[in-house]
Amino acid sequence: MGWNQYIMSRITKAQNARQSSFGFLIQVLARRIDGVMKQRLSEIGVDTKIFANLMLLNERDGVTQSELGRLLEFPDYYTSRNVDALVEAGYAERKPDPNSRRTVLIFLTAKGRDKAKELPKIIASVNSDFLEEFSKEERSTVIKLLQKAALIPEDGDPKL
Amino acid sequence: MGWNQYIMSRITKAQNARQSSFGFLIQVLARRIDGVMKQRLSEIGVDTKIFANLMLLNERDGVTQSELGRLLEFPDYYTSRNVDALVEAGYAERKPDPNSRRTVLIFLTAKGRDKAKELPKIIASVNSDFLEEFSKEERSTVIKLLQKAALIPEDGDPKL
DNA sequence: TTACATTTATTGTAATTGCAACTATTGTAA
DNA sequence: TTACAATAGTTGCAATTACAATAAATGTAA
Q: Are B23 and A130 an interchain contact pair (Cβ–Cβ within 8 Å)?
């Protein structure tokens, strides 16, 4: 084996190791998906950080702020500022919790619910951008395996 | 079906849709992996943003700065500051490119190469944290499918 | 050659994020 | 009851990241 070939083989091996790393692949995909999502969301005037909250509130209206953060796995301070942004955009409102004076319940406004309705088709389009070449079976396989890695059982709440 | 059951079923459906979304799963996993990596890397005194560069330079020493950024899919300004950090930490050095006065070649120092040697076992440990419950076959399947989603052929460079 | 576009890299500044301190409220146990 | 711990939420400030402007070098085409 010549020197150049040796070098190339060494490079390819290391590259392969990197590109075969679960964490590496997840990170690369996360960044790309985030970029595309940002683009699509900006077309309908929605900020990325508002997006996840809007989705979740549309499925569970009236949660407390801390529950909202917990479900999205966001830290409290982040949720606090995200809700500020939602409120400022007119998508949600804080209401006092009748059961406790220290918790706040978050509700979508009509405007927020309308905006939330535009999101699923964006999500679907981004997902299919990345899964274009996947067969139906491959799609279901990759989802199932990712759920397993995230410890999300196929039929319920995350275990973390 | 009673009212409460109706509500619960509606919630579960939406939740399921979210937790079955490729993008959502990737984002959740990315954040969790990032958190664990940050923790493990801090134990050996390596900053997260230095990490990727260190790995890549260890497989391809002497690349130009822009190539480094391109391979990691980082923007130029970010790479510029990352290299600043690498140099400041004594892990790498900038050298003039004999072929062009506007490009810079980045080389690992001995210290950088030593530090890079500590990384693979950390990567492996984090990966196996998340793939603990996976069979050998499942591991290879999920890697193959993620590579496909990232358009990384099993034997070469990413197409993007 | 000149003129102009492109590439490479850096940097000032604005926006965002993360940390930690803080207030207010509620829970707990003596 | 009181004292103390834990929880919910907010906010000031430091650190980080993103954007856009810049400078310098190189490529290109007349």
A: yes
